[in-house]
Amino acid sequence: MRTGWLAVMSVFAAACGDDGGGVGGGGVDSPVAATAHQFCVDETNRYRTMNGKVAVAHSPQLEAYADTGAMVDFSGSPHQHFSSTSGGGIAFAENECPQWNLQQQGGGDMTALVRACIAAFYSEGPGTGSAHGHYTNMMGAYGTLGCGIFQSGSSVTIVQDYGR
């Protein structure tokens, strides 16, 4: 299912001199990665439910797309991958926490970092304009979600891609 992603990750790691650790240092298919990705969807749904919205379904296809986005944006700029691919034909909105510090913002725990990232999106609250865009995406009329996470050292980029 994620074999293509692993190949991309290996090429990126070789080109950038990264240890290829991905999330939690255990690679993109590690238990830490799987847990953090699923927690991202679950935590988003917790906020959606609190606001009377239906839950979004986990999408492996969007997760793979978001993982690539997190990797590309880590070395580039926020939303670079999403913008340059027009959502890849599957993502219609994106939220991102670029290069957050795992130790400082997550206390060394990836799940805590994902929680803090999603809480930041939610704290923007309802409204219009870019100051409320992450909240608007979280509460939008989307049916699927994929979360991507890329880590290098203590820096982590988290991406949420929403689909229909």
Summarize the topology.
Blueprint: H1 3-16, H2 31-50, E1 57-58, H3 60-75, H4 80-85, E2 93-101, H5 102-106, H6 110-123, H7 133-138, E3 144-152, E4 155-163
Parallel strand pairs: 1-3
Antiparallel strand pairs: 2-4, 3-4
Largest sheet: 4 strands, mixed
Average pLDDT reading: 85
Strand content: 15-25%
Unreliable runs = 1-29
Helical stretch tally: 7
Order of helices and strands: HHEHHEHHHEE
End-to-end CA span: 21 Å
Helix content: 40-55%
Structural class: alpha+beta
**What value does the Rg take, in angstroms?**
15 Å
Tally of strands:
4
What strand order characterises the main sheet?
Answer: 1-3-4-2
Shape: globular
Describe, in plain words, how this protein is organized in 3D:
The structure is a single chain. The protein has 164 residues and is α+β, with helices and mostly antiparallel strands. The protein is 49% helix and 18% strand. It contains 7 helices and 4 strands. The chain has helices at 3-16, 31-50, 60-75, 80-85, 102-106, 110-123, 133-138; strands spanning 57-58, 93-101, 144-152, 155-163. A 4-stranded mixed sheet has the order 1-3-4-2. A hairpin with a 2-residue loop joins β3 and β4. α1 runs parallel beside α3. It is globular. The two termini are 21 Å apart.
